[in-house]
């Protein structure tokens, strides 16, 4: 997704790291760049708003359940593999998380 306008921070970079922004898991300098991007780019701002709403809904509906630590570790491991390119993102959803991946 891109709005077609030039930005200091590219739309694809913003969308690739959107959940890090939403979860405040990025350095302040990067957060500032992303905030500026959202102020300039309405398609990315719309995507941010949608993802923020989904996150709030999930928290409200499922926020009371504790996630087993082994499941969390497996999911985080899978995310790291996807980010590193070892598993293509399009294949990640189809591949089951197995106990040997922990």
Folded structure, characterized:
It comes from Streptomyces tropicalis. The protein folds into 2 domains: 1-65, no CATH class; 66-102, no CATH class. 64% of the residues lie in helices and 0% in strands. It is built from 6 helices and no strands. It has helices at residues 11-16, 18-22, 28-40, 42-62, 69-84, 89-92. Helix 3 packs across helix 4. The protein is globular. The model has no long low-confidence stretch (mean pLDDT 82).
In short:
The mean pLDDT is 82.
Topology diagram in text:
Layout: H1 11-16, H2 18-22, H3 28-40, H4 42-62, H5 69-84, H6 89-92
Protein name: Mycothiol system anti-sigma-R factor
InterPro entries: Anit_sigma_mycothiol_RsrA, Znf_put
Domain Putative zinc-finger: 11-44
